[in-house]
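Assess this today:

___
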Amino acid sequence: MHKHFLMYHSGFWRIKSLKVIRLRSNINKSRARRLHFQYPQWVDLRFNVVAAACNRTSNTLTGSICDATVERLVDTQCQMFFRYPQRVDSRCNRERTQRVIGTHAAQLTLIAARWTRTPTPSFTPTYTATPTITPTLTPIPPTTTNVPPTPTPIPPTPTATPMPAGTVRTDAAGIAQVYVPAGCFLMGSDPAKDSQAQPNEKPQHKVCLTHDYWIDQYDVTNAAFDAFVKAGGYSTDGYWSSDGLAWKQSNKISGPDTTCTQYSSEPQQPRVCVSWYEAEAYAKWRTQTAKDGASYRLPTEAEWEYAARGSQPLIYPWGNQWDGSKANTAESRIGKTSKVDQYPSGKSWVGAYDMAGNVFQWTTDWYDANYYNGSPQNDPSGAFSNQYRSVRGGSWNLKQDLARTPSRDRNVPAERLNDDGFRVVWLGRSV
């Protein structure tokens, strides 16, 4: 135990040893001892003030509390000095008193710090090595030439293979049809290129068909039409339009015309002496026979002409020059219809036969001689109404000028003529 210690007595901390106070000032040590022996209560009072001010339960004796304590101790000392002036050395003036008290306060701070309940850990100096600054060298990348990265090849997305124009299919009725892809062409005649151009064929204008379709490869034959008759074609009202029923009932029509056999009697010859209403009913029968949702009808003038001449404005299905060996017209002097497959060299770009000569073909359009003056570019469908329906293609008993692909003619829907036949189209793409 250190020889300097504090002892708790009567509610106060007091000095046990007389050597606890060591005056380290310039004041004479003998005067300090005399002061202690003569005024012991005063010394106790000073320490009591210090002990009360410096909280003995704290771990650290803070500087701010001790500073305040010293100030209070000085004031108390001064009071004691002046209370007993005859016992106090007159040379112990206020300045020296403050220096003595300051020394005592420093000693008391040291003693109180040693006797707190939790000893203050001794200070162990930590030596921190001075870091050596090593310069960091930032590498400068070499100059490179901007070479575009090699692209990773992306395989093309598989697309449906376009169906070739002229692809042939056979429908549920056993009728061959050829495929006509959507496209644009010049419809009508250009007088500068065609000397036989007629007023109802002008002006030549661009037309676009936005849908694919199939057209019968041949004119409807006697054999094909007889299948319609045997299937109850004339007795089934569901095949007929309201106008067709009215025509059939008013004219007491119960079957096909039988007066035209001299012009067409063989199974593979085209059906003639057939009205527009009968051709319409046949198309409706083909629709119901298909049983797959396919819808058959007569072609529009634009659909017929596009299948006949294609994107090139050909005057005839095979080219721009007439060739009598490729079509049955009046120039052939056959005097009747020919078999539908007799002129393979005269077929059109999609493989359709007899698009020039043999028989006229009904279309679904109402006829209007001035229709081309204001017809729409996309999918024209003819005049709104009229008394005539358009027919196309020329025939066996008329000259070749009516067999040109842009040639237009008309007939009354109710007429049954010996050079009128037809073919139908189906809108769709599946084979």
Notes: Confidence is low (pLDDT under 50) at residues 1-71, 73-93, 115-135. Residues 63-83 form the longest helix (21 residues). The domain at 168-426 is CATH 3.90.1580.10 (paralog of FGE (formylglycine-generating enzyme)). The chain has two domains: 6-114, 168-426.
